[in-house]
């Protein structure tokens, strides 16, 4: 094999190795062709408001400030008096895009997106927004367009500041959030003079999404322990309060609005995110309004995770532990739209917790389900069915994961052996062309050198 052919072969081999990496490990978890499923009950809410405070840490939101007062007084009063709170577990990479995909589409980011540009939708996926009748969203141009682009038809609307004007948040990033709150208020005010918009807003299965980037930006610039980060949490708390009361007014206190506030990921003490530290993966969740249960006071609750235990001591109310991808089916059931087609519930712990809630009637929408059937079905029979369902679901999830990864060992071994073979070949070529070992071999006649010579002749037959 001459030098050009050798270089060409080397390039080819490395291309194959690189491609195999993507082919084996970056395969899409999306499963297509499922029939849409929904909760077969009347939806408790006509509309859902989703606030995502980008980069908001759970301990920063629930914690107290220096004087012992809650940092977010409005949200604090919600979780003490008329809502539920929880911790949603995100997965690595703790970045904005995969976090939002888990929240809104209900599955963990398709890593094949990395190979295809990441920003726009490389793979079509379904989302709660797509299943809604109308979704209006306000916030960053890095997040909103991916859900509008994937949506079928014209029913997901976005209002973004431009990427350049994100700089207007350079002096005070909280302005990014004021921009969103102001635009939502103006939008609702203007709808009073726009009959088409007004009637669309009063439809059922409506979603309003407010993406708030200020806290993340402040966290990167000043770290989560800074005055700026904490002040921004206060601003968001005030903004959420204003939006909630504006909406109650607009809809004449019809009690048909459900609210969810969460974050896409947290942030480390030094102002970064992407990895798997609890400060990055544990994000806050507060839900209130139509279909959401009132808070449960509990005397104590134990968590193995000390970070989680630390958060609980600030609130001392029964906490719900969620996987981030569970929030999408929760939102879908609140407004009565089918679960996003690609959504997946994997965490057995959460499933158990949900079953507990169903049994105790903790979540009102599920409580109704329970009451509806309790007259017909004996409690024992129900619990037998529940445990059967549980087994089937766990088996299905195991199977799903198995079929997503079953050939990885075989393919990985093949690639590893190919790599070892290629390395051996390269070493032999170097030995042959850059040393006189091959020529020296017959003279000394040592066994090892004879072997080397045999291998050399084997590999260089093509010459
Ligand atoms: Zn960030």
From TrEMBL:
<keyword id="KW-0337">GPI-anchor biosynthesis</keyword>
<feature type="transmembrane region" description="Helical">
    <location>
        <begin position="409"/>
        <end position="431"/>
    </location>
</feature>
<keyword id="KW-0325">Glycoprotein</keyword>
<dbReference type="GO" id="GO:0006506">
    <property type="term" value="P:GPI anchor biosynthetic process"/>
</dbReference>
<keyword id="KW-0472">Membrane</keyword>
<dbReference type="Pfam" id="PF04987">
    <property type="entry name" value="PigN"/>
</dbReference>
<comment type="function">
    <text>Ethanolamine phosphate transferase involved in glycosylphosphatidylinositol-anchor biosynthesis. Transfers ethanolamine phosphate to the first alpha-1,4-linked mannose of the glycosylphosphatidylinositol precursor of GPI-anchor.</text>
</comment>
<keyword id="KW-0812">Transmembrane</keyword>
<dbReference type="Pfam" id="PF01663">
    <property type="entry name" value="Phosphodiest"/>
</dbReference>
<dbReference type="InterPro" id="IPR007070">
    <property type="entry name" value="GPI_EtnP_transferase_1"/>
</dbReference>
<dbReference type="InterPro" id="IPR037671">
    <property type="entry name" value="PIGN_N"/>
</dbReference>
<keyword id="KW-0808">Transferase</keyword>
<protein>
    <recommendedName>
        <fullName>GPI ethanolamine phosphate transferase 1</fullName>
        <ecNumber>2.-.-.-</ecNumber>
    </recommendedName>
</protein>
<dbReference type="InterPro" id="IPR017852">
    <property type="entry name" value="GPI_EtnP_transferase_1_C"/>
</dbReference>
<dbReference type="GO" id="GO:0005789">
    <property type="term" value="C:endoplasmic reticulum membrane"/>
</dbReference>
<keyword id="KW-0256">Endoplasmic reticulum</keyword>
<comment type="pathway">
    <text>Glycolipid biosynthesis; glycosylphosphatidylinositol-anchor biosynthesis.</text>
</comment>
<feature type="domain" description="GPI ethanolamine phosphate transferase 1 C-terminal">
    <location>
        <begin position="398"/>
        <end position="448"/>
    </location>
</feature>
<comment type="similarity">
    <text>Belongs to the PIGG/PIGN/PIGO family. PIGN subfamily.</text>
</comment>
<dbReference type="GO" id="GO:0051377">
    <property type="term" value="F:mannose-ethanolamine phosphotransferase activity"/>
</dbReference>
<dbReference type="InterPro" id="IPR002591">
    <property type="entry name" value="Phosphodiest/P_Trfase"/>
</dbReference>
<keyword id="KW-1133">Transmembrane helix</keyword>
<dbReference type="InterPro" id="IPR017850">
    <property type="entry name" value="Alkaline_phosphatase_core_sf"/>
</dbReference>
């Amino acid at each position: 094999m001459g030098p050009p052919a050798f270089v060409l072969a080397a390039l080819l081999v490395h291309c194959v190795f690189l491609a195999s990496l993507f082919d084996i490990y970056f395969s899409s978890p999306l499963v297509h062709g499922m029939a849409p499923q929904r909760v077969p009950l009347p939806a408790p809410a006509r509309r859902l408001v989703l606030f995502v405070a980008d980069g908001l840490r759970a301990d920063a939101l629930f914690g107290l400030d220096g004087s012992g007062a809650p940092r977010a007084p409005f949200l604090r009063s919600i979780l003490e008096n008329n809502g539920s709170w929880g911790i949603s577990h995100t997965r690595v990479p703790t970045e904005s895009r995969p976090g939002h995909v888990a929240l809104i589409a209900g599955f963990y980011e398709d890593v094949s997106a990395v190979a295809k540009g990441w920003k726009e939708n490389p793979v079509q996926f379904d989302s709660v927004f797509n299943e809604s009748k109308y979704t209006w969203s306000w916030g960053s141009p890095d997040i909103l367009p991916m859900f509008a682009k994937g949506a079928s038809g014209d029913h997901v609307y976005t209002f973004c500041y431009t990427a350049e004007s994100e700089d207007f948040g350079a002096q005070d990033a909280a302005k990014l959030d004021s921009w969103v709150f102001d635009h939502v208020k103006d939008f609702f005010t203007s709808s009073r003079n726009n009959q088409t918009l007004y009637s669309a807003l009063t439809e059922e299965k409506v979603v309003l999404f407010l993406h708030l980037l200020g806290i993340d930006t402040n966290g990167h610039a000043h770290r989560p322990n800074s005055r700026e980060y904490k002040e921004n949490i206060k601003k968001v708390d005030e903004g959420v309060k204003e939006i909630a009361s504006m909406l109650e007014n607009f809809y004449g206190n019809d009690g048909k609005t459900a609210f969810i506030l969460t974050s896409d990921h947290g942030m480390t003490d030094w102002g970064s995110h992407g990895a798997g530290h609890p400060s990055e993966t544990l994000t806050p969740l507060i839900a209130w309004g139509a279909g959401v249960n009132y808070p449960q006071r509990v005397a104590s609750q134990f968590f193995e995770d000390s970070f989680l235990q630390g958060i609980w001591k600030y609130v001392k109310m029964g906490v719900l532990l969620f996987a981030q991808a569970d929030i999408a089916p929760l939102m879908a059931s609140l407004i009565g739209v089918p679960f996003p087609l690609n959504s997946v519930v994997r965490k057995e712990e959460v499933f158990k917790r949900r079953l507990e809630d169903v049994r105790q009637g903790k979540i009102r929408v599920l409580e109704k389900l329970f009451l509806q059937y309790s007259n017909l079905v004996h409690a024992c029979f129900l619990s037998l069915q529940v445990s059967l369902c549980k087994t089937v679901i766990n088996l299905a999830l195991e199977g799903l994961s198995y079929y997503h990864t079953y050939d990885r060992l075989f393919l990985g071994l093949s690639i590893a052996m190919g790599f070892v073979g290629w390395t051996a070949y390269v070493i032999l070529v170097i030995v042959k062309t850059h040393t006189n070992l091959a020529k020296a071999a017959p003279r000394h006649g040592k066994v090892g050198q004879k072997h080397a010579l045999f291998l050399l002749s084997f590999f260089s037959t093509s010459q």
